[in-house]
């Protein structure tokens, strides 16, 4: 049994979840993870910088029933971790005119948020055929900068930064950059997290599926 740090009640998780992440101590019960302020009308975007889904833990079905706004065509990617490092997951979905064409997701027992964001981007770019014009969205500005601004210079410098220290998650960086370079018409763009954009919320749900008994 665990004690929720939000409401104080005791709760338990399935044996399957506990076996997948040995040693992990959850901080909230499923009820508190699902609680959030009323987001307003269904599908409305965040106003005044408010985050309308950050404290919720929605399934993909709940996402589709709740949100409507945002781009309806493109690839949407997201990564998450509980603790940094800690258990985490990633998700990517290819959507055309509001219909899911392809999706993928996964998890790691001991990882970081940045690693999961890169893993999601790799999966998302892999869904895009070469020479296809599309947008690839991530709510990680770091991932955007790595692929669109920094990786080319690191490659020319023998995969070394100008500043001291190694490049974090180098293999993932190299893989993501290669996929992006081979898809010059795929525009990698930042999208605001937890703002009610339907398919970014969907990618977030894929990325956090590892935390739930119900997908």
Task: Give an overview in words.
The structure is a single chain. With 215 residues, the chain is an alpha/beta fold. It contains seven helices and seven strands. Strands 5-4-3-6-7 form a five-stranded mixed sheet, sandwiched between helices. Strands 1-2 form a two-stranded antiparallel ribbon.
Q: Note the overall shape.
A: globular
What is the string of SSEs from the N terminus onward? EEHHHEEEHEHHEH
Tally of DSSP β-strands: 7
Low-confidence stretches: 34-50
Helical stretch count? 7
Query: Mean of the pLDDT scores?
Result: 85
Cα distance spanning the termini: 22 Å
As laid out across the biggest beta sheet, the strand order is 5-4-3-6-7
Please give the share of residues in helix.
Answer: 25-40%
The percent range for strand residues is 15-25%
Supply the helix-strand structural class: alpha/beta
Radius of gyration: 18 Å
Largest sheet: 5 strands, mixed
